[in-house]
Structure formats: structure tokens, C-alpha cells
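Thread: Modeling a multi-component assembly for a lab meeting

Hi all, long-time lurker, first post. My supervisor asked me to bring a structural picture of a complex we are working on to next week's group meeting, and I have zero experience with this. I have the sequence lines for every component (891 residues in total). Could someone generate the structure of the whole assembly? Inputs are pasted exactly as I received them:
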Amino acid sequence: MSQDPLEGCRISAGKKSAVSLGKALHPPNLLVVVEGTCGACVAASPVSAPEGSCSYNVAHHHLCVCVRVCMAWQGLQKGETLASLKQESENLRRKLEEERGKLTDVELHQVAEKVETVAALSIKTRRVLKGHGNKVLSMDWCKDKRRLVSSSQDGKVIVWDAFTLNKEHGITLPCTWVMACAYAPSGCAVACGGLDNKCSVVPLSLDRNENVTAKKKSVAMHTNYVSGCSFTNSDMQLLTSSGDGTCALWDVESGQLLQSFHGHTADVLSLDLAPSETGNTFVSGGCDMKANVWDMRSGQNIQSFDNHQSDINCVKYYPSGDAFASASDDATCRFYDLRADREVAVYQKDSIIFGASSVDFSLSGRLLFAGYNDYTINVWDVLKGTRVSVLFGHENRVSRVRVSPDGTALCSASWDNTLRVSRT
Amino acid sequence: HILNFYRFLKNSYIIPEREETLDCSFKMQDPNTGVRSQPQRLVITTIPHAITGEDIVTWLADRLQIDVQEARSFGSMLVALGYIYPLQDHKRLVIKPDTSLYRFQTPYFWPTQQWPVEDTDYAIYLAKRNIRKKGLLELYEQEQYNRLHKWMNHKWDFIVMQAKEQYRAAKERKKPDRVVFDCQERAYWVVHRPPPGTVSAMDYGLDRRTDPNADEVTGDIHMLTINNMFLSRRLVKHCATYIGHDPFLSACLPSNPWLTDDTTYWNLNMSNVETPTKMRVERWTFSFKELLSDPRGRDDFRLFLKKEFSGENLAFWEGCEDLKWGTAATMKEKAEQIYKTFLARGAPRWINIDGKTMEVTMKGLKHPHRYVLDAAQTHIYMLMKKDSYGRYLKSPLHYASFHSVFLCPLFPFLKKHFLSDAHPIILRQQEQELRAKMAANAPVDITQVMSKLSKQGKDVPPRPVNK
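Re: Modeling a multi-component assembly
Sure thing. I ran the full set together rather than chain by chain. Output:
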């Protein structure tokens, strides 16, 4: 096997100096360097620089430089190239799919053929929560079914009684981009975190004059931003996911790390705890396009799903705990059956080309609400795989959708600085 | 070739679309199947290939098989991203479904080219417009120009030189071409340097730390499991079971609070309510998990177990939950307490678990950790689920709950409890007080419970002794 990292790459202009060109960036005014993949790596054809009217003095070069191959070169054994390893991985994957296919491969919508279709839904906004001065990034309902906590890009976390539109508490964090917030099961505290790489717990108080921010307590410490957080079955433990690629379980009182979960190869963007009474698992999704299921006790990754073609923004369990759904930047939402260990449905449509940022199920699990980056919310029939309804109204990306604990309403948080509570 | 370029960039989260948009844009321009266009007189120059907003919306609705509202939304996204630009009102990047005119942006300016949008280029553009006609810049553009002039001062000569060069080169073109290019360039900058106060579709939030070297060539081999047709049926069954309880799919009685602003539904379903609703009691019959996870259901079950003199099972299970999910500091203490109360020989509330489980548990308790009682807890859970739960469902207690009248709330019993808008902190205090009282008092007087059952719904039941 050749030792030359550029073997297999076609370079028609200049020679191996093309690599150094790529590193030198733009010498003034003369060169448009285009990176592309070459035939040896991902089997795409070479790329040319864009044509079109251009008033700069530019020389168009046809380049094909495979920088990725060069960087990964260090990790390969003698006798192997990246190409051969990829080939081997592909073979294994194909074999696995073949074996899986031998079992009766029935899609969910086929099993649900005889099920009655869902009647057309007319979902209207009943409350608009205004008060954040910047993008609302996340929200969570309280178990009392009417209160909720929301966090925004400007570092503010607000606790609302959504029913009366009353703002009950305001917490100011010293960082921007508070991407994670969660309500404690007792309803007496909230957790929040983001670009400060921490997740803090703030106990709430009945005294309006009390500054709750002062009682804020740092619990989780990560080495990159905190993307999601959730309390376990009590106020005493906190589960967090982070941009550093790990998830972790913390003891709230002492801040002690109880368990960490390693396995993702990129930012972890979301997590959800299994609703089972006896189970101790949770699922996480990340930028490595994988959704992983973890055992909280051992820290082991017990199942993994890699069907998505882009970052997974959100994962959520089905109400029974036997399945879960994921939302991704590849504009699809997918549904996985944990016992069958496979994806059983894909929710996609030609007219939906923007990434899905968030998903949640209705109480029965029949409906899947998904918020998208094209400012809409699509409602899917989980069993049939069809879209039941579209909700318009937000004026910017929908960052989070959550159904209230008793299933009576849907709350959507958006980059248009508002939260909306909707129902049929 | 542009499509190939795009394929390479497909996974970038900055570019939200799939091939569909490009495909869509190409198809729209097809003279045979695309949107019909005509030359349009704008000011004194004819702009070729202009299309009306309503034509775009109609074409999209037809091509993508969606309704007009969605087509408008989709069209507006195309405009917001700069694939189509408006000729009039060029700063508002939306589709107006009327005779307002739009044009397709040249692929050179498409966001998928993913060229870094440099401030230098913007400065050149603004300078060029300034050369053409002073005072042409809008207020926000003027501010930007001043700002750039300030911090790019060191290369301002270069910028002015480039601007002049471009201006000169543009003059050499035919007027119609020049006007078109000016429109295109202007549209490009409205997308990438939006006027203040507008929403920019280019805003993607934070950068994600994706590892470009993650060429992972390892694969996970999973345990292949049983036939999934059977498993998918479970999911279907779950939906069918709960559909009557789903407020999005069935009526909420008496009414959905978010619709009528009436909180009766919540008041009737509070965790400490005297008489649970029929729907709620029905849910307890779906699974043991449902019964345990509803605090009111668990209370009912606890009462039932006391009658059967097997209350220690539930108490043990709750103790284990408390151990698992509780604070790390008191964990050892809790484990010891549970051992003394439930597991030790001669313990006051001794639970009946098999020998093997007992052995494993005892061994684990020498070095207790939060999951040390897992085996015992699972055993007891299964015991309750397979044995007590079945009997509970057939018991007079459950029967009474199921057949109690609930639709017309009886005011006397509502008065004694806080309503659903009470703050969770208050509710928690109330709960703690109640628990303290229960712990202090004597166990439930069975005769009181029986007399309560005999007066099924005829009048307000008497308050039990220990509340």
C-alpha cells in the first residue's frame, strides 16, 4: 500500500504544492482555493470553482485536494489506508443490514394499517409568553402542568405561570446562550446551564423580594457548553449533556460526579430519561449523528442508532419507554423501537427541507410534535407516518417543543423571543 | 458541477437545505415546466425574467403538493436565504402572494457556495455604491460604512482601489446587464448583512465543536433481537389504549383549561384529591407502572396493601427509590436504615424475598452503593405487580373509586384542599406536614375505611381519623 497521502487524489493544477496552498489561504487577489473530496475517499467527483460573473481578477483553478485524508493519516496502521478501513467498515455494515433484513422487515405504518386515521387537528395558540429580550433557547414544564421555565440567549431564565402569564421568578446567569433548563420534579427548584460550561440549580422561593439568583448553586462542570439537562426522579440528581461529547450524572447537594458517559465522538446536543419505573436508562443524541442509549448504573452504552445523516438536535422517549424519536438537521424525524433495536419510521416530506430542532409526543404517543428551523411546527401521526397538521405563527426558528405533563397543551419556544402555548 | 459542490457540503449545519432547494430552484427556471416569467419594466430599464409572488406560491403548492399557506412559508424561506429576491421592497425578505415581482438569484450568489462573507467585500461594495452616487446609502449602511472605514483604515486604499476597478468594469457592460447584476449584488448583501431589526435566516446560533478527524471506522455489532412485527404491535396497542386520555385527540372533561380558562379539570386531578376522576382510575388499570406513578393511585394501593397486611412491600420499594435517587451524602445511612427495617432478621417490617436475592443483597450491603438494593427491589416490584396488583383491581376499594361520581364537583371537599394554582412550594410543605402527622399517628383504623365504602357516593364521606 502506498505511503503517499495524496495517492488517489487528482490534482490538475500544480502538484503537491496544492496542499500547502490550502494552508496558506488567500494570497491577495489571485487564487480561489476550493476544497473537495477526491475519488479515493468518498467517491464523489472532483469539484470546480463556481462560475459566474465576477469582477475580481481571479484565476479559476480546478483543484481536488483531499485534506481530510492527510489529517487522518497519522492514525493508520502499516498496510492499511483509510480507504481500506472504510471499505471494511462498509462491508460489515452491509452484512449487518442483510442479517437484520432476514427477520421479517415490516415498517410501523404497515402494522398500523388498520388503525383509524387521526382526524384533522385544528391547533390554536392560546397563550403567548413575552418577556425575553432575546432568543428563547429552551423550556421545560413543571409537574403542576401550568408552570414552566424558559432560558434565553441573553442569560436570563424566567419561571412563568403560563396559565396566568405571570412571571414568577427571574434568574440572571453571568453567561449568554443558556441552552439547557429543567424544572425539578418537586417544582421547588430549576436547573440551567449553557456557555458557562456549568449547570446550576436554583431553589425557588415564595418571597417575591428574594433574589433567587443569589442562591444559585453550581452542580455540573463540563469542559464545553452544556446543551441539555434533566433531573432524575428526584431533586437530588441531575443529568447533563455537553458539547464536550459526554453526558454526566451529578449529585446536586455536593456537586459530585456520580457517573460519566463516554461514547459520542462529537457534541452531545440532547438527552432524555426513560419514563420507566424500574428502568435506569436514558438516550442521548449528538453531532456525530448517533443516538445512544445508556445504562445509568454502569455508564455503558447499551444501544446505538446511526440512521440520521446529520446532527441530531433532540431525542425523546415514547410514553411507554419502549421506543424513542429523534429530530435532526437532515430535515427528518425518526422513530426507533428499542426492543427491535432498529428504526421503524421516518417522518419526512418534500416540502420540509429545514432541520428539525425538537420533538415531543402527545400523551398517548400517537402524535409527534416537531419544531423546525423554518419557523414551523409539524404534527406527525406516529403510527401512519403522515403529517397531520402544520402550525405557523413563530417568526423565527422553533428551538423547543414540549407537551405539558397531562397532555393538555403544547408549548413552543422560539428565536423570536416568545413562547407559545397551543392546544386543539 | 455546482450540485457536486453542494453534495460535498451537504452535512454542514450552516446550510439548512437539502438538494431539494437547488433542484427546486433549477426546476422553477425551466422554461417549459417552471414558473412563467416575463420581462418587466422597472424604472426605465427592462428587467428580464421577473416573476410575480403569486405565481411562485402557486407553482410551489402544485409541485410540492402542499396548501397555499405552507407554500407561502416555503417561498418566504427561499427569499430569506437569497435564492429568490424581490425587485420592489428589497429589504423585506418574504414572498408576497400578489403581483409583487421577484427574480432568481444567480447561483454565484447562492449561500451553498459557502464563501466566507468577508467584511472586506462588504466594504468594497458600499464604497462602490458611494462612488456611483453619494448619499445613496441607507442610514444603517452608512453606519456600517463608517464602522468599517474606522477599523479597516489600514487597507482602505486597497478597498477604494477595488471599488473603483469594479465600478469601471461594470460601466463597460451593457446597461441591462449592469442593472441586473446590481440587483443581484444588492440582494446578496441584504441577505448577508441584514438591516437592523430584521430576522436573518443566515443566523445559525453557536458553532458546534465537530471533530473533523472523527473518521470512525469501528462499528457496533448489536444483539439481533426478535421479530419486530410483534414489537411494533405493542406500540400500536399503546396508542389505542391511551387515545381516550390524550387531550389532543379526545375531549377533556369538563373542559381543557387552556381553552376555557377554567381550572376545574386540574382541581379534579390534583394528587391529594379525595375522589379521583373515573378517567384517572381507568388509567390505573392499564399497568402497574401507571398506578404507582400517580401519587393518588399509589395512595389507594397503599391503603389496599395495609388491609392485606403487606404494606411493607410498597414501603420497601419506596425506600429503595429514595436510596437510588437521593443525595449521595445520606446514602449509606439510608441503606442501613432500610436494612434494619426490612431485611435484618427479626426486622419490624420484614419483607419476603428469596434466598438467592437475599444473599446477593447482604453481600452488597457490606459496601453499600446507591444500586445495592436493585435486585431486591426488582423482586418486590414483580411480586406486587404479579400478585397484589391483580387483587387490588378486583378489590372493593378500587371498585368504589371507579364507580364514584365525579362530574359535579362537591364543593365541601374542594374547600379543604389548595387549588391547582397553589405554588408547588406550598403544596410540598403541605405534603410534608401530612406525612409527619401520618408517621406520628396510629395506623389506619380499618372500620373507618369500611364505613366510608358503605356510603358510596351518597354523601360526603367522613374524614378518616389520621388526616
